[in-house]
Write a structure and sequence with these properties.
By secondary structure, the protein is mostly helical. 57% of the residues lie in helices and 0% in strands. It contains twelve helices and no strands. The longest helix has 18 residues.
Length: 222
């Protein structure tokens, strides 16, 4: 896209600091059901679900965890079976060897350092084996204390299309969003972009004519 067009488009929609609140408000009204798609009943199940969700769909994870969580209820349960058995139980999520190894190491650390409980601080979560910042942000937010903003492919793509960031690196994108998005919306904001990206702002064929924020978006084709 020519730089001149981008510059003119940004002038048309106004500065991002002035747009962020109406963007959030409109998307929240449009996607009132926006929430995490993973099924879990407690912090441990949440952590496991998010760890298993790498490189697969939430639907697939939920299908696997329906049986998994009936068998593995506590951190000790993941360590009480041979790794090969755990691998078979999570096989359908893909990358099962790496995931099983990470799960077992995480459970061991939970027992050794956190009394078997899932920590809530981001700096503790990222120390768990197999838990990168994105996973830690998801867990912290779903436990009610968002300490950052989750940046997945939808969040990256829509943040760029909305002119909220020019960055490509997820960490830098998160920093840009943290400066713009009100702290109390850090947990909700990614869900809004994810659901809007799935339903309306589709990667290859964005439905700008049906978008509730098209007048606030410098990439709008309307």
């Amino acid at each position: 896209m020519p730089r001149s067009y981008v510059r003119e488009a940004r002038k048309r929609v106004g500065p991002k600091k002035a747009r962020i609140r109406p963007v959030i408000e409109r998307l929240a009204a449009e996607h009132a059901d926006a929430a995490i798609a993973l099924t879990f009943a407690n912090p441990l199940e949440l952590l496991v679900s998010v760890m298993l969700s790498a490189q697969t769909t939430d639907v697939n994870v939920n299908r696997v965890t329906e049986r998994l969580f009936a068998k593995y209820r506590w951190p000790e349960d993941y360590l009480a079976v041979p790794q090969e058995e755990l691998e078979r139980d999570i096989f359908a999520t893909g990358f099962y060897r790496q995931k099983a190894k990470a799960l077992r190491a995480t459970m061991a650390m939970l027992l050794e350092e956190f009394d078997g409980r899932v920590p809530r601080r981001l700096e503790d979560l990222v120390r768990l084996p197999g838990v990168a910042r994105k996973t830690a942000n998801v867990v912290a937010a779903e436990l009610g204390d968002a300490q950052g903003i989750v940046v997945d492919t939808h969040v990256r793509r829509l943040s760029q299309r909305l002119g909220l960031t020019k960055q490509e690196d997820p960490v830098k994108i998160e920093r840009d969003l943290q400066r713009l998005v009100p702290r109390e919306r850090w947990g909700l904001f990614p869900h809004l972009l994810i659901w809007h990206g799935r339903r309306v702002c589709i990667a290859r064929a964005p439905r700008c004519e049906d978008c509730v924020v098209n007048d606030l978006c410098p990439s709008s084709r309307v």
